[in-house]
Predict the 3D structure of the following.
Amino acid sequence: MKQRLARSTPFLVASLLFVSALSFLGYQSYRTNDGHLVYTLDDPYVHMAIAKNIVLHGVFGVTRYEFSASTSSPLWTILLAAGYKAFGVVDWLPGVLAAVFALAALYVTNSLCQRFALNALARTIVCCGVLYFAPLIPLVSTGMEHAMHLFFVLLLILLMVRFIESPSRDALGLFCIVGALATSTRYESLFVIAPLAFFLLIQRHWLAAVALSVSSLISVIAYGIFSVLNGGYFLPNPLMLKGHFHEVSGFRSLVEFLGYYGFSKLTVTAHLYSACILLLLGAYLVRKQGQPVILIALCLSCSILLHLQFADVGWFYRYEAYLVGASMPVLGGLYLGAARIPRRTLVLRSQLPEVALFACGVLLLWPMQQRARESLRDVVRASHHIYSQQYQMGRFLGAMYEPGVRVAVNDLGAVTYYADPDVVDLWGLGTIDVIRAKRCETYDSCAIGRLLHTRGTEVVMIYRNWFENLLPGDLVAVGSWSTTNNYFGKTVTFFGTSRRNAQLLRNRLWRYRPRLPKSVEVTDYEITEQERSDDK
């Protein structure tokens, strides 16, 4: 019992820090948002809306009126739907699930460090490093799948190390199952699985490489077929909008397609550049040891380049979080494990004094530290921004309009979760016609006007600056809400699609105004004579 407790001490220490910090920031956010639980992005409400519609209406869509492949994390959405079926449609479920998976990620981190033969102090440092640098608390504050994604990636690495050390069919079966779950959580898992499968091939584990690759693609293929059969694209809408699809039309584009694009992005993405250098340098320093950690370090370096080649970073620190978090135990195995290796076995040890090596490590960790510090600082501010705008937009529609009201928006999460509108998503996440027009480069004011007319839209609620020169001229501006503590965007503007709809909208905005938080500044627009004549 004492031995088991000693092995778990690093996990328990990091978990205590995690729960304490999450409770503190959660309480601060709760107070700032007038006693409401609000996540730090609008995106989690997209998953929540789809899960709600699955449970209540049997429709896989962000609204109950049509199918939409608006999630690139089908496993997370299905998990939410199962939770809603069991507990009802409750706001706290995504946050609780994210926190549970964050704790699970810390547990796997400790287990992985044990595989790398790190002592208790080193394991504690690494677990706290995952907590801080990933960063776990901001990930949980989003109420999204990113903590679960990090958990599965860490578990993949742990199973890879176990398989390398002692190959068996049971280990391979579990390896393949986790690969499938990781890809179902986020498609970016393929950026980790591809290098792992490649190195398995190099080591002549043919069956393992093929089995891992095939099992990881099953969920992608299944979700793609399901989407196509329901009128969508093979890839989910978020990937169609945000993914980097490189078209080869000349020598320069060919060079970019072959990896130069990812490498060029690496040089300007400081925290991933630092992680990559630390991984490669650590692998070089202990290269004569033949340890599995060296192989994992090379795989993660390749994963970073693949991610930058085909995907994005940022947007509240989450897209690349799995890479930063997974790098921590590997760096611990390379550097903290190397500290116990006899001096004569370390390459370049005599040429690189310990003080200089430590200073270089601290210097390279600085960009990751800066990113982590900013992420913690932004949690309460981002949550209050969502409360001041997207949350209020959803509550406004739910309180002032009947179900089925036809609304156009560019952030559809909270709007579709807290209300029941028939939405036109002018950004494209929930409306396939917008994606098609964007991909055909025909998305202009005429296309938007036709779409609004065809769908019978009554109200438009958007960030106006997102649609410079794209809005139809016959929209009637009614008013705007501006947040004094903006994080993602300052002002939401409300339009009516006719003078009658504009007048109804104005009356309802006026009735809802007392419910708005103090951080929202309201501006009323006068309907001009030109707009009145345009409506006739």
In short: The radius of gyration is 25 Å. Residues 389-535 form one domain. The longest helix spans residues 354-388.
